[in-house]
Amino acid sequence: MAVFMESCFFISLCLTMFAGKSSGATVPAIYVFGDSLLDSGNNNFLQTHAKSNYTPYGIDLPGEPTGRFTNGATGGDFIAQLLGLPHPPAYLSLSEASRKITTTGINYASGGSGILSETGTILGDILTLDEQINYFNSTVTNDLPSILSSTLARSIFLISTGSNDYLNNYLQPQFSNISQTYPPQEFANLLLDTFEQQLTRESKNGFEERKNHS
């Protein structure tokens, strides 16, 4: 039972990580990573079965469905609103020029993705969590280095991931043999170790960029 509960922790994992603390300071930006719980339209630009750019998705938003896997805004959108920020746009929806002027946050999440790179591939193309972090690092180092050097420490990072590593990977033996390789507890440990490495890479690269421009 303990093993099962530890595994379930990842099924609905939603981590809010503050890159820095400053009493009374406003939050300049929010950066969003993860799966369909937070995807705001990145999958619209990918060849994948994991799409939500059709009705009834988005029926509570003005205009056409946006690619969010919900009837309206995502959790990331609501948090941005509470912080007085605009909804962070999907990274793949931005032109190269737009990426250099979008300073209030970006959404890198991709429906179907998980902690492991192979998770979600049965659905087609997705942005793996590693790829999402790579895009974020590109934002930090290539698109907005001078601006983010002074604001990244006060920004919020929102991540929702882990459920698809079970739903679209471990529990799909007809598509993946990973359950034959890892018993349940070892698989949970693999997710924890991999996720820790990803968070370390994300925060380290952001810190190095701030240090280089300080």
Automatic annotation (TrEMBL):
Q: Which GO terms describe its molecular function?
A: hydrolase activity, acting on ester bonds
Answer whether the UniProt record assigns the keyword Repeat to this protein. no
Q: Which residues form the signal peptide?
A: 1-24
Q: Which InterPro entries match?
A: GDSL (IPR001087), GDSL_esterase/lipase (IPR051238), SGNH_hydro_sf (IPR036514)
**Is this entry keyworded Lipid metabolism?**
yes
GO cellular-component terms in the record?
extracellular region
Q: Which UniProt keywords apply?
A: Hydrolase, Lipid degradation, Lipid metabolism, Secreted, Signal
| GO process terms (BP) | lipid catabolic process
This protein's major location comes to: secreted
Localization recorded for this chain is: Secreted
Entry's family note: Belongs to the 'GDSL' lipolytic enzyme family.
Please state what the protein is called. Answer: SGNH hydrolase-type esterase domain-containing protein
